[in-house]
Amino acid sequence: MAEPAFGLDTFGDIPVDDSGAPVTAAAAIRQVVDEAVLADQIGVDAIALGEHHRPEFSISTPETVLAGIATQTSNIRLGSGVTVLSSDDPVRVFQRFSTVDALSNGRAEVILGRGSFTESFPLFGYDLADYDKLFEEKLQLFVRLLDEKPVTGKAPCGRRWTTSRSTRRPSPAG
After folding, report:
1. 7-168 — its CATH code?
2. Where are the domains of the chain?
3. What's this model's pTM, rounded to 2 decimal places?
4. Which residues of 60-81 are buried (b: 16+ CB within 10 A; e: fewer)?
5. What gap in Å lies between CA 36 and CA 26, rounded to an integer?
6. In whole angstroms, how far apart are CA 160 and each of 23, 87, 141, 152?
7. Which end of the chain is more exposed for a tag (fewer CB within 10 A), N or C?
8. pLDDT digits (tens, 9 = 90+) for 10-42
9. Paired sense of beta strands 160-162 and 152-154, if any
10. CA separation (Å) from 92 to 26, 95, 141, 172?
11. Phi and psi for 126 in degrees, rounded to 5?
């Protein structure tokens, strides 16, 4: 039987300082990085950062914060908890996580989801009525990108996909 793995997850909740005032989002993000570095030093197996576009959370781009963590750690697995694929570009998500994977020597993990909060849909110009279709079409493209082949096709919401091998740069580290 495999040993249990231990991990942390956060959306970068905005904490309060000693006076009870909320800290800045920038300070909250730096605190998350510091916590991840400490977690790596004491042997925690994984950290997952979630994506939100709300004022009470500081992390709107988990992969950016994970890239910062990657350069200061050596063992902890770095994951999203969750990346809202429905309102993002799957090629760019693939590229951003491939970059984190390269920086971390293969420790990046992406967890793709629809989003339990839907604030990203109007923020990025998507119709909430397309909630299911968007996830399905974007997940199809993301999975096809894993094959390292050019991808062409028509998505359920009418968008066209055309990629090339150069779309997969950088390649995942391993």
Report:
1. 3.20.20.30
2. 7-168
3. 0.86
4. bbbbebbbbbbeebeebbbbbb
5. 16
6. 43, 16, 11, 7
7. N
8. 999 999 999 999 999 999 999 999 999 999 999
9. antiparallel
10. 24, 5, 11, 13
11. -105, 150
